[in-house]
Design brief:
Elements lengths: L1 H24 L4 E2 L2 E2 L4 H10 L2 H4 L5 H8 L5 H26 L11 H9 L6 H29 L11 H14 L6 H4 L2 H20 L11 H10 L3 H8 L6 H6 L1 H4 L1 H28 L10 H4 L6 H32 L9 E2 L7 E2 L1 H18 L2 H7 L2 H20 L4 H23 L6 H27 L3 E3 L4 H9 L5 E10 L6 E3 H10 L3 E12 L6 E9 L3 E8 L7 H15 L9 H5 L6 E10 L7 H16 L3 H4 L7 E8 L17
Parallel strand pairs: 6-8, 6-11, 8-10, 11-12
Antiparallel strand pairs: 1-2, 3-4, 5-7, 9-10
Helix pairs in contact: 2-10, 2-15, 4-12, 5-11, 5-15, 6-7, 6-20, 7-8, 7-17, 7-18, 7-19, 7-20, 7-22, 8-18, 10-15, 10-17, 11-12, 12-21, 20-21, 22-27
Length: 679
């Protein structure tokens, strides 16, 4: 019996292991890169990554509400807490968790992925403007969010020691946060989930302890009190501006869809929401029970903590604030990477910091955010003043998302009454928040709006400039030039330029190439080579597309390769071309042996040289003033952006850049007259 018992035990152990593996490791089925199942591990990751921003809002929301009206009554607190509860329900739960998470592009979310979905239908004019406004506002939010979150956490130290130097401590913490970005977030990201789980449990427990001090706070679940407060209070605009802070992280929730999956985010949100609401209820009950001693200078979040727990609570809050900042910074890096690949943002140096897909580090953006955060801290110096600048920019992002979601729902063929209802309800709700936050403009809102406007101008100029560039390019049918290129290859009197000459083309049509490319091969300096490669780069609206096709114009001689990249994929032309060459050699379509007699004898592979055509807007162009200004600004952005060769992952030692003028003739051309002058 003993062997049988052991055998049964082994089966039981294996069964239990499989069940645990299924639960915690996921069996998270994927369709491409789309996470299709939930798991306990996935839930923990979602809690750590997705809800950092919205999860730290209890640090400052109720304090901001008290700052609006230091002399409050019971109806004021009940109405304020009710506004928070229903904002989290309508804005976060219904719009983002229920609706937006279903608008995924092959598992990816966020405003750029949503724009690519809308773009598929052929609508790329006004949706681009809407997406650019939303993206620029989110980038501006990435500057102020770490500052206000960390400052709110550190200010809790003043509950222990009133003379705490908050600003220097905040600057040190923010500096450390941005300094570690270059090493990637994969290692520290492992601790995000457990730490944030402790944070949310602390929120819920603190709230649950304090609600017993005044059970009437549960009346806040009745939306009547929220409506009553808004209708009756003369400061309703300022109240809404403060209430909106509770949902500012909802956009990041949608942007992190690709990291965690819809099911993991959805299921974990219900836990997060319960903990948040418990904490807000607890803060409200604590305020009501201490009505005589509470004013706008007191943060109820720290006020409701037991005195013996205050130090531990401040430490946990500070760590949670750091995690929230880290998660937001990583989200900004991902957004910039997508924007670059969608031709909405200038080329920038982008480093891949780990084996996890989409884990990026953008040095230029990291420096920009760091300087912006430090500037915010030095300018406002307190979380109360920062809250005045917080919220206005992110409302623009949310409105942009609503408009794009409406367009996407229309494209899916949903009933008009449903799409119209969605559009009206959430435009009204977010419009009310936007108008409320406009009252913050003179008190600090101008700061984020100014930053967002500058970022939008960059996006607009870059996108329009590239569009104007491409619209004025001349394209030729490549097969018509095969004979002359073959003749150049066989002309022994022309010095051999390289064994393999590679040109990069951005032609929108197969078999069509830029005329300047052909001019470079044939006219400028006839380039004799053993093999000619035309690499045509094509961007797709899918996130992770990575494929190629080859048109062999002349066997073992001339190749037209089309490489298709998704907007989440960073082009590495050197790497991909090597793989393509290996495939062609294996299929017998290519022999890489150099044709130089000395190298051919020993079967040495020939060299590769890349030729890039760099077009510069010519000042002699004839065009309207608007187009001239856009193209001039575009050239300045190109001058400071990452070079094409670096952006494409080329070995710069084997790259030749040929500069050619882009001359536009969109108006009457001035011609000189011939006049024979008699001697």
């Amino acid at each position: 019996m003993q062997p049988k018992l052991r055998f049964c035990n082994c089966i039981e152990i294996v069964t239990i292991w499989r069940l645990c593996n299924r639960l915690f490791c996921g069996r998270m089925g994927r369709k491409g890169n789309r996470i299709t199942r939930w798991s306990a591990g996935g839930l923990l990751v979602a809690i750590g990554i997705v809800f950092g921003d919205i999860g730290t809002s209890p640090l400052y929301v109720m304090k901001a509400i008290l700052n609006v009206s230091p002399e409050f009554d019971r109806d004021y607190i009940l109405g304020a807490v009710s506004c928070v509860i229903w904002t989290l329900t309508l804005q976060t739960t219904i719009k983002y968790v229920t609706v937006a998470l279903r608008a995924d592009n092959n598992g990816e979310g966020g405003i750029m992925a949503l724009f690519s979905l809308v773009k598929k239908s052929g609508k790329s004019g006004w949706p681009f403007v809407v997406a650019a406004i939303g993206a620029s506002a989110m980038l501006a939010d990435g500057i102020i969010t770490p500052a206000v979150t960390v400052t709110s956490a550190v200010e809790g130290l003043r509950s222990i020691y009133a003379a705490t130097p908050v600003v220097p401590i905040v600057i040190v913490i923010i500096t450390l946060v941005f300094f570690v970005q270059r090493s990637g977030s994969s290692k520290i990201g492992r601790f995000f989930g457990p730490v944030m789980l402790v944070w949310f449990l602390m929120l819920g427990i603190l709230g649950l302890i304090n609600v017993w001090s005044d059970l009437s706070i549960f009346k806040a679940f009745n939306p009547y009190y929220a409506v009553k407060l808004i209708i009756s209070s003369p400061e309703w605009m300022f109240i809404l501006g403060a209430v909106f802070l509770c949902t500012t992280g909802a956009e990041a929730l949608y942007a992190d869809l690709g990291h965690c999956g819809r099911y993991n985010i959805t299921f974990s949100w219900f836990f997060v929401k319960v903990m948040l609401i418990l904490n807000y209820l607890g803060q409200g009950a604590w305020i009501l029970s201490h009505a005589g001693s509470v004013d706008g200078r007191v943060n109820p979040f720290y006020g409701m903590m037991p005195s013996g727990f205050l130090g531990v609570g401040i430490v946990i809050a500070t760590v949670a604030a750091i995690i929230a900042s880290q998660a937001l910074i990583s989200g900004v890096f991902s957004l910039i990477g997508e924007a670059v690949n969608l031709d909405i943002w200038p080329r920038m140096k982008i480093n891949h910091t780990g084996n996890v897909k989409g884990q990026l580090y953008v040095p230029g953006i990291n420096l920009f955010l760091y300087v912006g955060c430090i500037g915010t801290v030095l300018l406002f110096r307190s979380s109360g003043r920062m809250e005045a600048a917080y919220g206005l920019a992110i409302t623009l992002t949310m409105l942009s998302t609503t408009i794009l979601l409406w367009r996407y729902m229309r494209n899916l063929g949903m009933p008009a009454w449903l799409t119209s209802s969605f559009f009206i309800v959430f435009c009204f709700l977010e419009g009310a928040f936007f108008v409320a936050n406009l009252f913050k403009f003179v008190h600090g809102g101008w700061f984020t709006v100014l930053i967002a406007f500058g970022l939008f101008c960059i996006m607009f100029v870059w996108n329009k400039g590239r569009s104007f560039h491409r619209s004025h390019l001349d394209y030729k049918y490549f097969p018509d030039y095969i004979d002359i290129i073959t003749a150049i290859k066989n002309d022994a009197e022309i010095p051999r330029y390289a064994s393999n000459v590679v040109y990069i083309s951005f032609s929108p049509t197969r078999n069509m190439v830029e005329s300047k490319l052909l001019y470079s091969i044939i006219n400028k300096q006839p380039k004799r080579a053993d093999h000619y490669w035309i690499i045509r780069i094509e961007r797709t609206d899918m996130p992770y597309t990575l494929e190629y096709s080859v048109d062999t114009m002349v066997k073992d001689s001339i190749f037209l390769v089309t490489v298709r990249f998704g907007f989440k994929v960073q082009p590495r032309i050197n790497v991909f071309l090597r793989q393509i060459v290996e495939d062609l050699v294996a299929s017998g379509d290519l022999s890489l042996t150099s044709m130089y007699p000395s190298m051919k004898r020993y079967r040495i592979a020939g060299d590769f040289r890349f030729v890039l055509i760099h077009r510069i807007f010519s000042p002699v162009s004839i065009c309207n003033s608007y187009e001239r200004k856009v193209l001039t600004a575009f050239e300045k952005l190109r001058h400071i952006s990452e070079s094409v060769e670096n952006a494409l992952g080329l070995d710069t030692s084997v790259v030749t850049v040929e500069t050619v003028p882009l001359v536009i003739r969109s108006g009457p051309e001035i011609r000189i007259k011939r006049n024979e002058i008699s001697s």
